[in-house]
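Customer escalation, tier 2.

The customer says the design service returned an amino acid string that "doesn't look like it belongs to this structure." They asked us to rerun it and document both sides in this ticket. The original structure tokens are below, unchanged.
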């Protein structure tokens, strides 16, 4: 039975490196589902840095839009599936519906949120009965100022709610700040116990 782990934090907090360390500790046979795509030279360099620090034996699959479909390529004997990251995946899907100026855009955002929630639910359900652990990396985008654009606010709200869905079902939830990881699921449980 697989375990679900969510790793969240701000940009450049060290969350991906922490998740990769967790994945390596949980097994040698790791599938890395990458959601980022190369859109410019800076992103190409960022992706190259991520690739360079991963162990050579890990299998990397590209999953910019459909994480579930990529799971079909996961071979038996895998110990860990690491998705990096939900924030980019959600952004890819949000950007695919077009600009906020389009009529009915907010309705499309609501439909997208329902679809992404269902996909995450199915992903978690699949992992719970799988032989592998599922590690999900995401961004915590709600710590800053309210975005001045409709697209920014829609993204912040969408990702915040998706993160809550996953965190509620995860066995472990880590918040990474300045390279340091806090086990927030454990802290929440201790606080509730009194």
């Amino acid at each position: 039975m697989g375990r679900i782990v969510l790793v969240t934090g701000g940009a450049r907090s060290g969350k991906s490196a922490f998740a990769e360390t967790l994945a390596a500790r949980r097994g040698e046979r790791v599938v890395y589902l990458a959601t980022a795509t190369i859109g410019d030279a800076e992103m190409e360099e960022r992706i190259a840095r991520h690739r360079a620090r991963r162990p050579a034996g890990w299998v990397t699959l590209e999953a910019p839009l459909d994480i579930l479909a990529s799971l079909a390529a996961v071979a038996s004997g895998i110990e860990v599936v690491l998705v990096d990251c939900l924030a980019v995946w959600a952004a890819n899907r949000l950007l695919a519906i077009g600009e906020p100026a389009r009529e009915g855009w907010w309705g499309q955002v609501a439909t997208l949120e329902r679809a992404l929630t269902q996909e995450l639910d199915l992903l978690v359900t699949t992992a719970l009965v799988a032989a592998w652990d599922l590690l999900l990396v995401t961004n915590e985008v709600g710590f800053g100022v309210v975005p001045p654009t409709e697209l920014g606010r829609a993204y912040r709200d969408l990702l915040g709610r998706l993160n809550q869905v996953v965190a509620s079902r995860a066995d472990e939830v880590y918040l990474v700040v300045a390279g340091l990881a806090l086990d927030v699921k454990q802290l929440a449980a201790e606080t509730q116990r009194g």
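Tier 2 assessment: The sequence is consistent with the input. The chain has a mean pLDDT of 90. The radius of gyration is 17 Å. Sent an explanation to the customer and offered a walkthrough call.
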